[in-house]
Amino acid sequence: MATKSFWKRRSLRVRDDARTKAAELTLRQSIYPISLVTILFFLWGFSYGLLDTLNKHFQNTLHITYSRSAGLQAAYFGAYPLASLGHAAWILRHFGYRAVFIWGLFLYGLGALLAIPAIKAHSFGGFCACIFIIGNGLGSLETAANPYITVCGPPKFAEARINLSQAFNGIGTVVAPVLGSYVFFKFDDERALQNVQWVYTAIAIFVFLLGGVFWLSDIPEITDADMEYQKAETHGEEDDTPFWKQWRLFHASFAQFCYTGAQIAIASYFINYVTSTRANTESALGSQFLAGAQGAFALGRFIGVAVMHFIKPRWVFLLFMTGCIVFIAPSITQGGNTGMSMLYLTLFFESICFPTIMALGMRGLGKHTKRGSGFLVAGVFGGACVPPLLGAVADRHGFALAMVVPLCFFVAAWSYALCVNFVPWYRDTADAFILTEIGLHEPRTDEEAGSDIMREVDDGEKATHVQLEGKVV
């Protein structure tokens, strides 16, 4: 009997039309699943930070141009729409979140293993193909993890919750450049490539083990019916709008595309910017500077989470998005320590933008939440489009002037921050979740609810009895 129960709990298929208690999880009940999923945020932060370091590493060892080295970012982020709108979205809607977590980890581990022979063959194209597989895995993980963190727990704290989890993504982006500065740039080309192989071997082993942990773990599944319940509790006055008329979602996806493209472009060529505009700066030192910038990025997320406890998340988002525009602009003309400092501040203000767009964009979607999250994650495709543009400009005019490219995309993303703060149709939907009490108190059991009903009946009978006695007297 115990064996049958064990295998039943390991099933990955969940009915989406059945409402569970997952939509009403309290903070205490959501700690374990959020902690487990947060490990995934560290994983793709590490992978993303490693990619930025490998970009410069392959320029040195394989002697490729700036624009061609952006093929890594194009392969990595170009895979995201295929996952978030394709296979991962299908699995999420027909099975559940846990199935997507396991599928994404499998693809991540597979790509890491296949990268080893590509590195041995010194094949940049082959390595890009492996990065494409890894991108599909990480795109799958993001398709499930971002909405899961957003909806797993009290809706009132959704923005703060996803920013806190994403802060560990920032820690991963710090660790990777530090590792790269010591194992990629401190050795001759052949030894450095061998070190890359060992790094990807370790990644493959870890993610396969983590996939096993997810398979064995009993984490709550959040269904479309659960999300429809949350929507009804906070947006009871709204009509059931068809998915293709969710204009706020599509604006958020556009902002995600523009913002992510700018963020990835800056990080991808940060080392190039520093080594080309700052005197006596080698690639190893540039990688360490990148780690410091990613540290500012991670710090910004922790500070953003703290501020969101006192100020509405939409206002914090507007402030940070504005900061990105204000501080990227001087890096175009300054260069050297001043330009690098401006990029540090830009990365600090980038910190909360991606997860906050994700959380705000999912507001009020109800039963469309899983599908909508795929569109928001697909916005990461901007990371495949903008870096090659920056690289092409840098090949002709240098890296300082090339920072005009991310500036333009930041301004486009800023349009969503303005709308969500000043357009009532956006603003009211975002604020409705802040007022809800869902998940702030322990849900009552059926026995407790029954006791309350019986108590009300008893009180009513006593009141009637007193009235009758008064009439007799």
UniProtKB/TrEMBL annotation:
The keyword Transmembrane applies. It is found in: Cell inner membrane. GO terms for cellular component: plasma membrane. The keyword Transmembrane applies. InterPro entries: MFS, MFS_trans_sf, MFS_TsgA-like. The chain crosses the membrane at residues 31-51, 71-92, 99-118, 166-185, 197-217, 249-271, 315-336, 342-362, 374-393, 399-423. It holds the Pfam family MFS_1. This is Major facilitator superfamily (MFS) profile domain-containing protein. It comes from Coniochaeta pulveracea.
